[in-house]
Write a structure and sequence with these properties.
single chain, 16 strands, globular, 352 residues, 7-stranded parallel sheet, 15 helices, alpha/beta
């Protein structure tokens, strides 16, 4: 197989991805800006490495010159996607990342025509954000092609890595979002709530709407113009989330964000191996027509970080095998709704 660069390979998720890539017999080039950390990791895994900052375009181009693809794992992606995408378009390198940031999906989508002309695939969101939800949305659309409304939800014992927590802080003042009539609308935090039967012993879970990546991607995958995404959380957490929304003008101030992110760096490690091995994730979806027809399907899979590693590798391997679709892509748009079923431990059931 040709070469894949894993940028941000020594972050929590990047390290898991790099280890899995080596276990699968790939020969990734590990990359990032911290020389000491990347040298240690490369020695331990027996990989080549590059010390490159995202503010060094010539060095990025040199790093990608012989690469088929880059798997970008360095967030918050709102700060990091653009220089890497620019470098991929200059060098003809396929771009994959593990973002879940709504604005990043939209911004990369705006580069669709450039990527198509360059013969490059731009495929953001190849982790838990948004492979399982995207695949379930595509499956529901296949079951009910006339649907004009899509609701997706997930329940997960997630834990949080340093990068994930810092990303949440990065967007703490942005509120909620839904898609209505094909356009993304800004709404209040947790503005909608409902009870969802996730199945597998998790029926009747309270959930609230969040600005998940599928508000962007599900529309491009399915064409369904109305999309809302929910995350399970108890009513008390919904109240706290809404309260935090009223404080967003203060929480969004740069010194406050910087302080919160510093605190996260000191206190957050991410779930350990035992937590990842014992956790699971559940996804629910419903598609409806204006006339009242509806279908419901569900997924069950491993822990969110385990799933991220597996889905990232599944997409990387497809790209390295030459299974590429140029321009902006979504996971299910590129590889179909059954992409998620290729992951060990994932089950899907049609409820209605």
């Amino acid at each position: 197989m040709d070469e894949v660069v894993i940028y941000g390979s020594y972050g929590y998720t990047g390290e898991l991805v790099a280890e899995e890539a080596v276990d699968r017999g790939l020969n990734p080039v590990l990359a990032g800006r911290n020389r000491r950390t990347i040298e240690r990791q490369a020695t331990e895994l027996g990989c080549d490495y590059e010390v490159v900052g995202l503010d060094e375009p010539r060095a990025l181009d040199a790093m990608l010159a012989d690469a088929t693809a880059v798997l970008h794992c360095a967030g918050p992606f709102s700060r990091t996607w653009e220089p890497m995408v620019d470098a991929c378009l200059r060098t003809g390198t396929h771009y994959l990342d593990i973002t879940g940031e709504l604005g990043v999906f939209e911004a990369i989508h705006d580069r669709d025509s450039e990527a198509d002309e360059a013969g490059v695939m731009l495929l953001p969101g190849v982790g838990f954000d948004v492979v399982p939800t995207d695949c379930l949305g595509a499956h529901l659309h296949e079951r009910l092609p006339e649907a004009d409304t899509l609701e997706l939800a997930f329940h997960a014992e997630m834990g949080a890595s340093t990068g994930t927590a810092k990303t949440l802080v990065e967007h703490i003042d942005e509120g909620g979002a839904v898609r209505r009539d094909g356009r993304i609308r800004q709404v209040g935090v947790a503005h909608e709530s409902r009870t969802i039967d996730f199945g597998w012993g998790h029926d009747g879970r309270h959930a609230a709407s969040i600005p998940w990546g599928d508000v962007a991607t599900a529309y491009y995958t399915t064409g369904i113009p109305n999309v809302t995404v929910y995350m399970s959380m108890p009513p008390s957490a919904v109240r706290q989330t809404r309260l935090a929304g009223t404080l967003s003008p203060v929480l969004g101030l740069p010194p406050v964000k910087a302080g919160l992110q510093w605190l996260i760096e000191q206190t957050t490690d991410g779930p350990d191996a035992d937590e990842r091995a014992s956790g699971e994730s559940l996804v629910w979806g419903e598609a409806r027509t204006a006339g009242g027809d509806r279908v419901i399907s569900r997924l069950r899979g491993p822990h969110t970080y385990t799933l991220t590693v597996e889905t990232a590798m599944a997409t990387v391997e497809r790209v390295l095998d030459g299974n590429v679709h140029t321009g902006y892509q979504t996971p299910a748009g590129a590889y179909g709704p059954d992409l998620i079923l290729d992951i060990d431990g994932v089950e899907r059931e049609d409820v209605l």
